[in-house]
Design brief:
The protein is mainly α.
Length: 138
């Protein structure tokens, strides 16, 4: 890719794809290890309200870990492909916004809402440090 603009767009898209994939894998592992109680009907409004009370803490932690690790992997991918940190920030912000949006679908504990907003951005800072050798000055 010779055009920096095209490289940056592709890097950002690749970072988001990697991030979402990692989030799904980590959340899937968490749901497999800590399945929701039998008989829970997510279509029923009253069950959605009770959902967070019934889901094991381990499953909640897996979701939060997925947000962090997904953003980390996606940010590293974006930096590796673009050699710029801005693309990583876009990936981290996308995951943070998706996490906050998810927490609004039904009531989540406050610590999960805070984690959804903050951890993906912390992951970008970690990625920046891990990928420092790949970053070129703007």
């Amino acid at each position: 890719m010779t055009s920096p603009a095209v490289r940056n767009v592709v890097a950002t898209i690749a970072g988001i794809v990697v991030a979402v994939t990692v989030v799904f894998v980590i959340e899937g592992i968490g749901h497999a290890l800590f399945p929701p109680p039998p008989g829970l009907d997510l279509a029923a409004a009253e069950d959605r309200e009770r959902l967070m009370e019934l889901i094991p803490t381990g499953a909640k932690v897996a979701v939060v870990a997925g947000w962090f690790l997904g953003a980390l992997a996606g940010a590293c991918t974006a930096i590796a492909a673009s050699r710029r940190v801005l693309m990583a920030w876009i990936v981290g912000l996308a995951i943070a916004l998706a996490g906050v949006w998810t927490t609004q679908m039904f009531p989540h504990p406050d610590w999960m809402l805070a984690s959804a907003a903050v951890l993906p951005l912390v992951a970008v800072l970690v990625a920046k440090r891990l990928m420092a050798a790949r970053i070129v000055a703007a």
